[in-house]
Amino acid sequence: MTGKLRTRIYKSRWFAKFASREGISDATLVAAIDQANRGLVDADLGGGLIKQRVAREGGGKSGGYRTLVFFRHEERAIFAFGFSKSQKSNLNAVELKAYKQAAKIVLALTQAQIETEVREERLFEVNDYAQDL
After folding, report:
1. Which residues touch 31 (CB under 8 Å, ≥6 apart)?
2. In this predicted model, what pLDDT tens digit does every residue of 73-115 receive, in sequence order?
3. Pfam families in the record, alphabetically (predicted)?
4. Nearest-angstrom CA–CA distance, 20 and 111
């Protein structure tokens, strides 16, 4: 055991439904956060908010999805929102401000508060079986 804590990865209720509908696997989400932890962030939007691209099932990232993630390096990541490039090209200023405010609030939650959100099914923990090895 290295003593290194693993990044806890979650999905918002909205994102969990989106990922299920679009066929985005937990393994794909784990890979996106692994890249972010290695400094490979598609866009750092500031305030703990990043945009990470994830591949469409059977395709590449360029034709895939954009995800908005509340992110604290090697500690916590919460997938909040996702969209395809054909649905939305980018966030407008009002949306960006709202997501940054949400990131600030959510990233300030204690682990006990996060666990309450999971119990109440407002957040869902992403399964990462590889990190348990």
Report:
1. 54
2. 989 999 999 998 778 778 899 999 999 999 999 999 999 999 9
3. RelE
4. 25
